[in-house]
Design a protein that fits this description.
binds 1-deoxynojirimycin; 24 helices; 5-stranded parallel sheet; 31% helix; globular
């Protein structure tokens, strides 16, 4: 009884009382959690496992409950999502403070690429290969979100994807496991900061566990069917990287994996994540994915769904209400043990303690701080910097770019020149009070850049979608008056994202026809392609004079694009997804197997593993991206030609900037394990460096290769490095290999 009183005191009072009454006895966070758990009724425990959306925004199928506030007051809700702003969050938290045990709510939000300041979509940002920049953008997003009351973001999405039809490729880091793992680690560090509990850190959430990016046919929410070997080797390492970065939470995925919905997949959640990887955070379902198991055909009703999900290790039920409706009954019927529930509750309370919410439930609700952080001018400086690092130069005939600032007349044409909000891409946050309308349009960016001596003229030309060509004549007329034309085309921002899979990934509508008309004027045309996925644009690739792939660059899009167009920033980004020639090549990825009948080039077609009507090559390969300068690779050196599994090889090469501009090069290290007990990919990224070189400058860079980089998952499902020969390759892309050598791993 004495202990219980102390605990109640702990919950209902301030830090001061905590210090006086408990410091000596309650030493660890684990003990604090237990001191709360011991007081909880079963219903209150189940409440902690229940998460609802606020009623203003829904990011999934809508369920209205008129009694949300009452449920919170009764301790039947552990977390809310989709509420923003210190005022609104404070109000909800006040209601939670009226509950018997005053357990604070967690507030979650999809802060995917920025809160008020929008950064490039994650796929675009990944093309910077700049881990510091990505950590910084997550850091700033977390700082803004935390200042606005949020303490949990549903990011990063770390799903590997080899299919650009899948609308959610825009949320990830592309197709490569090695790079994806590095980015996953950096993003978690960025969101969570030095440690949870700091005023500007939010909990990160690694999602979607697992295999979601491999949905059959790239159709969202579709099934995933893959070998366990491939799952462990290709799809799970980025998730493991988030655990290594101490990610606080995981989210299950909507798909079934080999017939078992992820939300009730014991192998994934309990055996791998909580077992082998010793993940000590908690797992939330995706939106209604517990009850959607009925649609999957894996359970008969919500009772069975709740049973399977909690038993498999899914701790919190987002929006399905199956836990709330069924767990008490499942416990009373002895289908679920109280200890199973306790484990889930303990994990959630632990995070609430770590965040400091028990000490101060309004910790993230300081309106003054909110105003200050949401109006920090440094954030837009960083957003501009990350945005320009994400723009990929795909083509630059006759070195048309960078444009001269003295150009007399520039025609800026296209449906994406003037809109502001399009630049934000999918999964932007609509901050209450319309703060999020802050975006520099592409037009505004150019106007600011060119100054008074340049005549900037505009025509829309056409819409993003549809067949109308009545704007073509005006566009051609405008183009004729210009020295150079810049054409901004692409997708609408809501054509990629959740539930936005497309079977036709060509540039929509008549936009490429507009390009054709503009080219007929004989003027050079620079094309900006705005998109949330790799698109197919064969005509543009062949005929445009220059192409910049801008993705969706966020708040500072216009400034960043202008910086690159005029050479104030020399583009350095490289693709993190293969761009197919046509949708028929999909799924397509650089690190494929060789097959028994590989074609060595496009004339090698007899009885070969090819499409008879297509080149064997993609349009643009993984790792591809140009610069305004050129780089030469030389002097490959290996400090050893043989190593044993405990040794490392140092591989060095000299990179020289042989062009006229200072610039950064992303130098890529690839390996090939020539003979394996399991067939190995023709080439695999194993390291990279981003080097800044002044014009004429050389630098020598060194990579270390150890047994881990040589390992793969064998038939016994173990990571092994097998003795034998390896090719080591250093290149400017996965196809543009500049230096190559061999070495051997000996026993
Ligand atoms: C469904 C999405 O799949 C998930 O990524 C997101 O975090 C939740 N909805 C919450 O909005």
């Amino acid at each position: 009884m004495k202990r219980m009183n102390r605990c109640i005191l702990y919950i209902i009072t301030s830090t001061v009382i905590l210090i006086q009454s408990t410091e000596a006895q309650i030493k660890t966070i684990g003990q604090k959690v237990d001191s709360v758990l011991i007081l909880m009724t079963l219903d209150e425990k189940i409440g902690q496992l229940n998460q609802y959306s606020d009623d203003l925004i829904y990011t999934g199928p809508v369920t209205i409950d008129s009694d949300k506030a009452d449920q919170i007051k009764q301790g039947r809700v552990g977390s809310l999502l989709n509420c923003m702003g210190t005022e609104r969050i404070r109000n909800w938290q006040k209601i939670a403070m009226k509950s018997r045990l005053k357990i604070p709510l967690l507030f979650g939000q999809d802060v995917i690429h920025g809160y008020k300041t929008t950064f490039p979509i994650p796929l675009g940002e990944s093309c910077s290969w700049d881990l510091d920049a990505m950590e910084l953008s997550a850091r700033i997003s977390a700082t803004e979100a935390a200042a606005a009351g949020i303490n949990w973001t549903f990011a990063p999405m770390v799903d590997i994807c080899r299919d650009p039809r899948w609308g959610r490729v825009m949320e990830g880091a592309g197709e490569d496991t090695y790079l994806g793992s590095k980015i996953a680690f950096a993003r978690v560090k960025g969101f969570q900061g030095d440690k949870l509990g700091e005023i500007n850190s939010v909990m990160a959430c690694a999602k979607h566990f697992a295999g979601y990016g491999a949905a059959i046919g790239g159709r969202d929410y579709n099934s995933v069917d893959m070998s366990e070997r491939q799952l462990l080797e290709t799809y799970l390492p980025p998730f493991k990287a988030t655990v290594d970065a101490h990610v606080a939470t995981f989210m299950t995925s909507f798909n079934d994996l080999n017939g078992v919905p992820s939300t009730a997949n014991k192998f994934l959640l309990r055996d791998v994540l909580k077992g082998k990887w010793k993940f000590d955070g908690f797992i939330v379902s995706d939106w209604a994915s517990v009850s959607e198991m009925i649609n999957h055909g894996n359970v008969k009703d919500e009772y069975e769904a709740a049973l399977k999900a909690i038993a498999a290790g899914c701790d919190m039920d987002m929006e399905s209400r199956s836990y709330k409706k069924n767990l008490a009954k499942l416990v009373s019927e002895r289908k679920v043990s109280v200890s199973l529930i306790d484990d889930a509750v303990r994990r959630i309370l632990l995070k609430k303690f770590e965040l400091g919410l028990f000490d101060d439930p309004y910790k993230f609700c300081n309106a003054e701080r909110e105003q200050k952080e949401l109006n920090n001018p440094n954030n837009s400086i960083s957003a501009r910097d990350v945005a320009k690092r994400s723009i990929v130069l795909l083509k630059n005939d006759k070195q048309l770019l960078p444009l001269s600032k003295g150009t007399k007349t520039i025609a800026f044409i296209g449906p994406l020149v003037k809109p502001k909000m399009q630049n934000k891409g999918f999964w932007d946050v609509e901050v209450p009070g319309n703060d999020s309308a802050y975006v520099v349009s592409q037009w505004e960016g150019l106007v600011k850049k060119v100054g008074k001596t340049t005549n900037l003229i505009y025509a829309k030309g056409c819409d993003i979608e549809g067949e109308r060509k009545d704007g073509f004549a005006e566009a051609v007329n405008v183009a004729k008056q210009a020295d150079v034309v810049i054409l901004s085309i692409g997708e609408r921002r809501d054509m990629s994202g959740e539930a936005k899979s497309r079977s036709d990934i060509r540039i929509p509508g008549v936009q490429e026809e507009l390009l054709k008309e503009l080219l007929s004027t004989g003027k050079p045309v620079v094309v900006l392609i705005n998109a949330g996925r790799p698109l197919v644009f064969d005509y543009t690739a062949k005929h445009a004079s220059a192409i910049l792939y801008t993705w969706w660059l966020g708040s500072e899009a216009g400034n960043a694009i202008s910086d690159v167009l005029f050479g104030d920033y020399n583009p350095s980004a490289k693709l993190t997804m293969t761009f197919p020639l046509s949708v028929g090549q999909v799924p397509i990825y650089y690190n494929h197997f060789n097959t028994g009948r590989p074609a060595n080039n496009d004339s090698d077609r007899q009885n070969k593993s090819i499409y008879t009507d297509l080149s064997i090559y993609p349009k643009y390969e993984f790792g591809y991206g140009l610069s305004y300068t050129s780089f030469q690779y030389s002097q490959l050196q290996l400090n050893k030609k043989k190593i044993n599994p405990n040794e490392q090889i140092e591989v060095s090469a000299t990179i020289t900037n042989t062009g006229m501009y200072d610039g950064e090069e992303i130098v890529q290290l690839y390996l090939r394990d020539i003979v394996g007990s399991i067939v190995r990919p023709v080439i695999e990224l194993k390291d990279f460096r981003k080097v800044m070189l002044k014009a004429g400058e050389s630098k020598t860079i060194t990579f270390s290769i150890d047994a881990e980089k040589l390992s793969f998952i064998n038939q016994q499902l173990e990571w092994v490095a097998e003795p034998g020969e390896f090719d080591v390759m250093i290149g400017a892309s996965s196809r543009d290999i500049r230096l190559k050598e061999k070495f051997e791993l000996v026993e």
